[in-house]
Amino acid sequence: MTGGTMKMLLFLFWGFLFSAVSQAQEIPTAPSRGQPWPMPMSYKAGGQLNTIDAATFRFATQGNDCDILREAYIRYREAAFKQHSERLLVVGPLRFRQNNLRFMQQLRGQENALLQQLSVQVSTPCEGRIYPSLESDESYALDVSGGQATLKAQEVWGALWGLETFVQLVYTTNSGEFVVNDTSITDKPRFVHRGMLLDTGRHFLPKRTLLQNLDAMAQNKLNVFHWHIVDDPSFPYESRAFPELSNKGSFYPGSHIYTPSDIQEIIEFARLRGIRVMAEFDTPGHARSWEEGQKGFLSECYSGGTRNGMYGPADPTKNSTFTFLKEFFTEVASVFPDQYIHVGGDEVNFTCWQSNPAVGDFMQKMGFGDNYAKLEEYYMQNLLDIINSLGRGYMIWQEVIDNGAKVIPDTVVEVWKGGWQKEMANVTKQGYHTSDG
What we know:
Distance between the termini: 16 Å
Helix content: 25-40%
Structural class: alpha/beta
Number of helices: 15
């Protein structure tokens, strides 16, 4: 199993774990159908049903309105009543269908309350192109009782999760009615970062697949798409400033790339679902594909004092390396609106650096001796300074710290290897923020 595959599996595991809430309550009266996922912080369900007529039911904004809500109403109406059109074909015209529902209720001797709308109230204005962040308030309160339903949230991001929960509560009876039980839910995520990692540098995924994954993330209330977009095998990110990176570094430049319009569509699709898109451009290791379109970026490897045609990590001895990184990440910061950029730093093999005489000379000049962790620290510190100058936060993999490198104190160190509890304790003891990958 490759390191990238392991990261993806671990990240998925932690993402689902993080979306659970430790304070979830036991629900002795929980219905057998129409239950929320993940378990809310507080969840009380009763046996009284509320009938929904899919043809007339509506989501109604009370107060602050925005495109995020309007788009969500369209999605969630389809999600809740996607079998509506098929049911009409079976039951017949709408008037007959409504009469049939009343007839079925009378047969049971029970008249359910008719739920005609979900009232949605968002306290904070949400109009304009806003994006979710690490500080977003995702809490909400949902109440359904006696034919009335209200959803209240401080921010629109909480309202999105409340809408997702409401749709999960809707189910159909054996007689074909759309119903929802009387329900009271108060919820907020236990963890603010609940993510899924996809590696498109090793395994190219078409845009439609990424969009499908984003939909699945929203259904599970995950809020961070960690996009490991490039790696050793390929460079599918199409750069405006450096088009040769994808022209020469991708699997197939004509088809296996993400154009600027593709990326903007993915970011917008995620934004409307309350999902952050955090891009990872991993260096100095895992960067073989960069060399194809940016000659001289990687260190050359030597055998017996001569070049052997192999390449190692990025070359930190050249000023041109950091000039290129500055221009490249300036573009990245303009493309991806998230507050964090992941710059990798994992699995850096020192062997090639150790074989290169120019790197050895640089080590002596800098006073690093034969401590190649110092060279890695030099590279990472320069890169983090670049990201910092762009007004963005930065994330790195744990190996940078494992190797003894010291970086900017507010760096977020992502732990992904075994023994994570011990590793996280080590990272936090050194004063760094951390997350599980």
